[in-house]
Design a protein that fits this description.
Layout (H helix, E strand, L loop, with lengths): L26 H9 L5 E4 L6 H6 L3 E6 L2 H11 L5 H32 L3 H10 L26 H19 L2 E6 L2 H6 L5 E5 L16 H12 L4 E10 L5 H6 L6 E8 L11 E8 L11 E4 L17 E4 L1 E4 L5
Parallel strand pairs: 1-2, 1-4, 2-3, 4-5
Antiparallel strand pairs: 5-7, 6-7, 6-10, 8-9
Amino acid sequence: MTRTIAIAPASPLVPPIKCQGIKTKLVGEIHRLAQSRAYERWVEPFCGSCVVALNVQPRKALLCDSNIHIIRFYQDLQKGRVTPAVVKAFLVEEGEKLRAGGEDYYYAVRERFNNQPNSLDFLFLNRSCFNGVMRFNRRGKFNVPYGHKNERFAQAYITKITNQIKHIATAVLTHDWTFAATDFRTTLAQAAPGDLIYADPPYAGRHVDYFNSWSEADEAALAGLLKTLPCKFILSTWHSNEFRTNDMIAKVWSDPRFHMLTREHYYHVGSTEDLRHPMIEALILNFPALAAPYEIVEQKQLAFFERPAANTKAKPNSVTTSTRVHRNRST
């Protein structure tokens, strides 16, 4: 079997599309695990923002998601419809309109997008909506309210986004990657012995704002498919937080054939700093792997959610991150 050699960027590539539960803090560990295996194709049934693939950078990949808007964005990037120059010109023009029209203009763009979806409006909404949340209603319409920042698309912010487009375009255009809008069942049905699957589903038992809903039945169906794959897999899920534990791990993954690594970090999904809590993330594998050496690292938090201008109670902009090995025991 040909071994895929993927060179991770020196620092994580951050995609221009924001998603809940983005794995920027975990890509180093996932990349290390991927490098420990020989595989021919990287497959993701829940690619989301594509932050993992962008940082693992496999030679060949099948990247799928049920969210057609994310998939369209990356397909348009491949086809040259979305480029740094196009994005810069669009955001400069739309940013001026937002500055003048504020909330009314945001909702006009939202209605325009929901009537005729396109990648540029999708990017605009994703970067100007409330807290960078990606949420759709049952009819598939984007329904996140305005972020109330008329000056959102200042020159520096546009430059940041266009630089992100430039960096990810290099990765996307120099590798053999296929993007497809498909259900996870369809994606996993295509798995072959030479694949390495990375599955990062919405988390059952947690708040889900996703293009499609996610339930325990979906979680069980995914687990059943992963257990019968003809190849190796890495599954991301939540292990526990200070309030509760993910019961699905004990129910589904207690078989000693499976192995689990954990890492603690923050998901910034609270509207204020005091609502954001650390969570233990689990990586479940069907192959043995050692965790990276135990370490405590101070890492700067990703600015997915803007902090209030004045907040004397705000915590330091860092988080302690550690890796631990948990061994599953059958009961």
